[in-house]
Amino acid sequence: MPDLLIELFSEEIPARMQGKAADDLKKLMTDGMVEAGLTYASSAAFSTPRRLTLTVEGLLVESPTVREERKGPKVGAPDKAIEGFLRGAGVSREALEERDTPKGAIYFASIEKPGRPASEIIAEVLETTIRNFPWPKSMRWGSGSLRWVRPLHSILCILTDEAGSEVVPLDVDGIVSGKTTHGHRFMAPAQLTVNGFEDYEAQLKRAFVVLNAGERADAIWEDAKNQAFANGLEVVEDAGLLREVAGLVEWPVVLMGEIATDFLGLPPEVLQTSMREHQKFFSVKNPKTGRIERFITVANRETADNGATILAGNQKVLFARLSDAKFFWENDLRVAKADMATWTEALSNVTFHNKLGTQAERIERIAALARELAPVVGADADEAERAARLAKADLSSEMVYEFPELQGLMGRYYAEAAGETAAVAAAAEEHYSPLGPSDAVPSAPVSVAVSLADKIDTLTGFWAIDEKPTGSKDPFALRRAALGVIRLVLENGLSFGLLRVFSQADDRADATNLLSFFHDRLKVYLRDQGVRHDVIDACIAMDGNDDLALLVKRAVALEAFMKTEDGTNLLQGFKRANNILSKEEEKDGVEYSYGGDVKFAQIDEERALFATLEAETPVIEAALKSEDFAAAMSGMAALRAPIDAFFEAVQVNSDNGTVRRNRLNLLSDIRKLVGSVADLTRVEG
Amino acid sequence: MNSEKPKSFQEIILRLQSYWAARGCAIMQPYDMEVGAGTFHPATTLRSLGSRPWAAAYVQPSRRPTDGRYGENPNRLQHYYQYQVLIKPSPPDLQALYLGSLEAIGINMDLHDIRFVEDDWESPTLGAWGLGWEVWCDGMEVSQFTYFQQVGGHDCAPVAGELTYGLERLAMYVLGVDHVMDMPYNDPQAPIALSYGDVFKQTEQEHSRYNFDVANTDVLLRHFEEAEAECASILAQEHVDSKTGKRIVMAHPAYDQCIKASHIFNLLDARGVISVTERQAYIGRVRTLAKACADAFVQTEAGGYVQ
Q: Which domains are assigned to chain B?
């Protein structure tokens, strides 16, 4: 059984695209071959900056012959119909077979699709794969019309078996397949002629190319760790950077360099970000001090001077980069110590959204709102307002202009330098959180106040100008903002009405509509926590549903209750009561809401239900008043047995009108009491 | 090949000139207008359009008013030089040709680490984009390497390959100089040896002051409008010249106005009179001009128009 080896050799493929491209090559090729009947035992794909490689082992020599039967027209059908059928099936009239069927004699054609040699199928599938390759961005080059991520130079495509290897003939826009490739661009550029995958991989390694990206990454990481360790230091882990760097080199050579002492006073995050973003360097820190003292760079070659020239060059570039960073840092510190006024003023020239004014105007609103929210979250109002005013100041700083990903963090450093309180400085960093569903939620009161104010201002603003998310479109990340508010409220146990806050934030916003947006987000959030959507609906239907903490407390208690036997049975009893009552009310055209009277009760079960209702009503009312929903639920649980017994023994529609009306009023009492806990009509089951 | 290290800024330029001349490029002279980058030279912008082959190389003085630092910053200048190569269709060995040019200016491939790092190029003012890399030498960006895909809203077919070298930075690296003003401009052994600072320090100061504080913004705003109007009016002319009776589409004169508008916008930006929201609008207006010029160029003979 032959093995297949394919290599698509091109100019440098962007590092971030290599991994997926290798997977895509494997999937498109193997799917295409299998679809054409060419099955195989195993396959693997690899990538380097200049090549995508696929090896497939244990391929069929050819696809199996397939016999297919096709049903034709009736015997005696017009010639035209029969000829049409013959053309379509590609058989002669003599080859047709007459067969009796329940519908009469019918012609059948037996078509044999002969198997095709593997090379023919591979050539076809590979050409289709190359022409339709799902690159995130592709280009043309020279005079051709073929698209690839960067110019494609050669296609290696060979089938290998015991007898040797053979090129699969293929010509894609003038690129003719062969059995050759090249080694490292600089260290071994000569052409290599390849026989099979093992030979290919071994020859490449001798020509200074490590084919496997995982192997390159492991080698980089091991070597980096060892070099750091030998100096009593450790490499700061960065899986994304490691993956990227492994995609920038075919022959990784790890070099460790020094950071000039002038820069060791920069915040470690600044050093790390500058080195990672601009130079793709790893940071090496001193475990004793936590300071970043060296860097690791990964070169793509060995040199006669053991990398000395390369390292010196990199060190020089880093010096220039860090000089910039230091310049920004020192300038920024000057502004910070002068009250940050330059920055806060600059924000009045920055448009937030053309219908929502400038950043400065937005900050005014956030500051006012943070002040309002301060008592709710237990923060000092002045501190919350101050924090809100400074939280976005770093957006105007030179450092954040250079490294946007440091926003917030720089704000914290600058607020500290400006002598602000620890709480105000922390809020500058933390008020962006939570960003994602797994991001940590701030708990410091001032941070919480600013974070809530920031997000609620965003939401009410975009609601006011009618820029709500639609379908999959959410350009302003409003769903994320709402989820952020929900998590801030729930994880900090904050109980307050959102509607009032919405109208304070922006009274042009449709607060009710925004609240139902929150309820939708809340349902998604609670569903992930295992609360049923109908249970949530039953609680959303209650008064005070703009207090999310209260709403969730109720929902969690109800969810727990609905999981008990008492809960499910009470639900049945309630629904039965409600159904009978609703039906009779509709029939009679009245509402039975006078309240039942035990003196008209006829039998013990009826009297027992009256008694329980009388006993439990104050219990439930008190529980609700103190927001003890678990107690309210157990109050409801007490109703279950008497309700069951009542329906067992009592016919509601008695012939005696008074008795009937009294029983309906009793049911109404039950509905009212249960309904004060949650709207069980919305619960399924 | 000259294996000796170059001694001066100008020697690096001369070596690039002779290298690319030897590879068949027409060595052109800088365009006689203020531009932000070598790409703006019509030998790149316009000649990358249409079906006719093209190969040119040239030095282009480039102006970036916002980058002025009064000659103090070690590598930031409001006036600097780019070396630009444009070959259409892009030859299959363009990467090798490029690496050869680095060797020509004294970068020893056996000792340095050259890398092609993804960097897609886009010019919102020219309505142009392409895919390619920034080329790193020991971690320093020494060139931009781009396969043009679209210019002025037109697909490039064939595709032009563009190389842009930031000359000062590259030369500082090759010559081992830390501050641009200290770099030898001519041979340091010459009777009158001149540094980059001798030639440009004063002009950097003068222009920095002018760009940031003095340029008359009202006049500039008016010039912008005028250039925009002139561009449109040039392109509105009949293709056939009534005087000569010949078909003369004035793509280049119109494009000059586009260049002018673009530079004025850069000056206004440096003066800080353009707000964030206005910025996009100005860029859009320049792009509209660039697109109209590209539309006109493909109506000319050089742009592949066949009567």
A: 9-209 (3.30.930.10), 216-297 (1.20.58.180)
